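Dear support,

Our group has been running a series of protein-ligand predictions, and this particular one with erythose-4-phosphate is the one our PI (initials K.S.) wants archived with full inputs and outputs. We had some confusion internally about which version of the output was final, so please treat the block below as the authoritative record. The input we submitted was:
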Amino acid sequence: MRFFLDTANLEELKTGARWGLVDGVTTNPTLIAREGVPVEEQIRKICDIINGDISAEVVATDTDGMLAEGRPLSRIHKNVVVKVPLTRDGIRACSILSGEGIRVNVTLCFSAGQAILAAKAGAYFVSPFVGRIDDTGWHGMELIRDILAIYKNYGFATQVLAASLRHSVHVMEAAKASAHVGTMPFKVLDGLFNHPLTDKGLEQFLKDYEKAFHGAPVVR
Ligand code: E4P
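Confirmed final output from the archive:
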C-alpha cells in the first residue's frame, strides 16, 4: 500500500520525506485553509518536497467552474492530481478531465454505488472516507472492501485511496484489504512507529551493553 500524507503542512511533509515513507500527498480546502497560503502557491511548494501524486482540490461546485479550476491546477506540476467532489457536476467534470488525460481523484465517497460512478467516469483515484463513516456508527472499512471487490469484478483501473484514516488500526486494516493507497494525517504516520515493547527492548539492550563495555563504541 502506498502511503500518502493528508496534510498541506510543509514541516510535516519534510519530516515524512526525511523518513522516506511518503509516496504522495492529499490536500483538501480545509487543509489548505489551515496553512493560510493560496492553493497554487502551496501546491507548488508541496511538489518541491514530495515526488509523488499530489491531490489538489477544486472549490467550484458546477462542472464548468471545476474545469476552469482543474485544468490550471493540473498544469502546476506533472504530479498534480485534480480532486473533485462526488456530485453530479463532479462526476461530469471527472469524465471530461480524464478524457483530456488529466488524472482525477474523486473525493467524498461514502458508498460503493458512488464508487462505481467514479470508476465509470474514468477516475484515477476514488477516495472513500473511512473515519467519517465510522463517526456515523457504521463500518468504514467495509466500504473499502466492497469497492475493491466490485472494481475487481469488472477490471476497473481506478485506484482505491483509503481516506480519513484516523489511527494505526485503520492503516493496518486498509492494507489488509489491499487498498492501493492509504492517506493519513502526520500524527497517524508518526503513531505507526510506536510500540512499548520496542522502547522497553531498546532500553534493556543499551543497559546490558553499557554494563559490559562501559560506553565503548560498537566499532572503532
Ligand atoms: C481525503 O483526501 C481527505 O482529505 C481526508 O482524508 C479527510 O479526513 P478527515 O475525515 O479526517 O478530515
